[in-house]
TrEMBL record:
Residues 262-453 form the Tyr recombinase domain. InterPro entries: DNA_brk_join_enz (IPR011010), DUF6538 (IPR046668), Integrase-like_cat_sf (IPR013762), Integrase_catalytic (IPR002104). This is Phage integrase family protein. One of its GO terms (biological process) is DNA integration. It holds the Pfam family DUF6538. Keywords: DNA recombination. SUPFAM superfamilies: DNA breaking-rejoining enzymes (SSF56349). One of its GO terms (molecular function) is DNA binding.
Amino acid sequence: MRTNSFKSTGSTRYLALRGRKFYYKRKVPVELKDIDERGPVIRVALKTDELYIARQQRDILEEADNQYWASLMVNGESKIAQHRYSAAQARAKAMGFSYKPYYEIMEEPLRLMTDRVKIAQKEKENVQALDSVLGMVKVPDVTLSDVEKTYFENIAPPIIKAKSPAQKNHWTKERKHTFNLLREEIGNKAIGDITREDALKFYKFIMNKVAPHNGEPTHSASFGRKQLARARGFYADYFKYIGDAERTNPFDGLTFKDTDRKSRPPFPLEWVKEKILVKGALEGMNDEARAILMVAIDTGARLGEIANLPPERIRLDAKVPHIEIAPMDEKGKRREIKTRSSIRQVPLIGLALAALQKHPNGFPRYHDKETHLSNALNKYFKQNELFPSEKHSIYSFRHLFEDRMKEAGVDHELRRILMGHSLKRPEYGSGGSLEWRLQELSKIAIPFDPSII
């Protein structure tokens, strides 16, 4: 847009007198009223009663305003629209309403619609107030790509603050994938234009992956649920971010039941004793991976929980040697854990105690690299035929740990605590002393040759 687009004609344009002094008087363009805070009318005292001086000063101010408005119009159309929309929300709130687009207002109860109309009649001379209360200001045309940028730059940081670098990378990668799937199916639409029909189109797109009418599924129901939950979350989080938290979400209610959930089978205990905990079976593994495996067998802890244990949480010098699994919030050592119930203290017995006595400072090789660790362990077990079946994985040791406790008669609630599962009831007390936990856990100790550690 050329700078003279805002000019009027006449040698005395934008000049007015107050007494004998001139001042610059100019209306802010209608489309910029919500972004130029000087509006709706700009007034600048020129402090002169000489017309030719006033014209010179007017020309300078006029050109400055022209350039400023042109830059807004050319480079910031989405920003202008966002300001206009935010201003409409604020005006509606000031008049006692939440801002809603007109088509949502039409679905409100008659009483609420009537209240809006009454206010509109009072404000009929104020176009901006009228548009605000009747929902006539369009949601800014912010595309999914723009939303993605806003999401990762402004919405996500507080959510992922406590995560480690690897956790942040994994979290971000998964959500970028969902944004890509959304664009692939419904196009790079403006988020305000996404309808229920678009959401259903995305739902059917995902359904063809998890429950196709013909052929085998390529993805699990869990995958489908996550994609829909993230799409719903993106929409809700974005509109909450711009001050429209009550906006109807087109993705609401769309999900998949996890009918295909199949738990990994546990290792048979005899298989572990005869095939894995024997001399030579694990010799080809590096020391840290082998030690982590031993800790997993006798604590039931997740690989990531073990691999990221800092030295101060490996309590070998305590009265009851144990590990402390908890989130970390120190600068440079931040790490989230799966759930609140995952915070726990696990006594060390047998294999776990022996392995950590050899690695009291933890496992730096696999710090924040649990995916790499899991892949390495699974690959080793497959290559050396250490899995009882194709359905087994390293995670099967965690299931075996739970079965061992169950068969040994370990207290039910203690089993849930040691596994990091929620108790499904209000929590009272600490869950039992470490001495008692050790006594219970000792029931499942496996005899082993120390040379295999």
